[in-house]
């Protein structure tokens, strides 16, 4: 079966090691490797030195770069030292990947906050590669391109690589993923295991706004899109976008957009209406 896909996944899989494991390629691979450490830890050759890779460690290995992976016993808080390492790995190649890789400097190792959306891209790629009867290399190629672009977005969106910046970024991500649900400041702080006061301070320091204001901004943008493009009643839109009651939503919306939700919907539909001849 031939394919016009701009990039090709050679193999994609998930491995969980409970026994020591080692892989060494002195001359490197003839293709790209994207590897995400999801559980436990390992050691790998990064920029000429053996480096510890913990959960959330994303490795980007270019063709021809020497590769050495070591998985061995680690000391954990409870119990005896043991081997416990899980990872997703994708071997791939293609002209699109060449252009993406060379579009900017690629760090061999970066730390990525693990969330369902990002890990889900790896999981979906693995599932696509396992299909037999209806496998589509074009679909796999699209998922791989989305993964690469998501890596870029995470890299650019993250305001700081410091531990403080990392915590703030994870809180921001929590807000964006859960904006449609009702949650408290305590839930945001608990997501990164810090106090509410520290969470509020870190978020304001990194993003220049409060958590509450950012939550409202995300929810209002969700509501604006639904007001324009969906037939849902305004009260239902407010509820499904995380607002506790319509009165509060109405007040926040008017403050943000200078008109009521009803006026906004009427105006947007008038703009989109076809001209009468």
TrEMBL record:
The keyword Phosphoprotein does not apply. Keywords: DNA-binding, Transcription, Transcription regulation. Residues 169-267 form the HTH araC/xylS-type domain. InterPro entries: AraC-bd (IPR003313), Homeodomain-like_sf (IPR009057), HTH-like (IPR037923), HTH_AraC (IPR018060), Tscrpt_reg_AraC-type_HTH (IPR020449). GO terms for molecular function: DNA-binding transcription factor activity; sequence-specific DNA binding. This is AraC family transcriptional regulator. It comes from Paenibacillus apii.
């Amino acid at each position: 079966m031939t394919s016009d896909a701009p990039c090709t996944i050679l193999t994609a899989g998930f491995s969980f090691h409970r026994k020591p494991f080692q892989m060494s390629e002195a001359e490197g691979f003839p293709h790209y490797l994207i590897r995400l450490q999801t559980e436990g830890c390992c050691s790998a050759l990064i920029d000429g030195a053996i480096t510890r890779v913990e959960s959330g460690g994303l490795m980007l290995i270019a063709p021809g770069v020497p590769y050495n992976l070591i998985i061995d016993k680690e000391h954990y808080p409870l119990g005896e030292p043991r081997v416990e390492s899980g990872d997703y790995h994708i071997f791939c190649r293609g002209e699109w990947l060449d252009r993406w890789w060379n579009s900017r400097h690629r760090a061999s190792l970066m730390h990525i906050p693990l969330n369902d959306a990002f890990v889900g891209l790896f999981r979906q790629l693995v599932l696509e590669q396992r299909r037999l009867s209806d496998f589509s290399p074009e679909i796999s190629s699209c998922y791989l391109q989305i993964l690469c672009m998501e890596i870029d977005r995470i890299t650019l969106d993250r305001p700081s690589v410091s531990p403080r910046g990392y915590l703030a970024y994870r809180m921001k991500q929590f807000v964006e993923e859960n904006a449609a649900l009702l949650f408290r400041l305590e839930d945001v702080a608990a997501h990164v295991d810090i106090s509410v006061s520290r969470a509020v301070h870190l978020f304001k320091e990194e993003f220049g706004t409060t958590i509450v204001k950012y939550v409202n901004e995300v929810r209002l943008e969700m509501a604006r899109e639904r007001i324009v493009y969906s037939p849902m009643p305004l009260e239902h839109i407010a509820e499904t976008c995380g607002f506790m009651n319509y009165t509060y939503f109405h007040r926040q919306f008017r403050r943000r957009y200078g008109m009521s939700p009803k006026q906004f919907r009427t105006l947007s539909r008038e703009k989109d209406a076809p001209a009468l001849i």
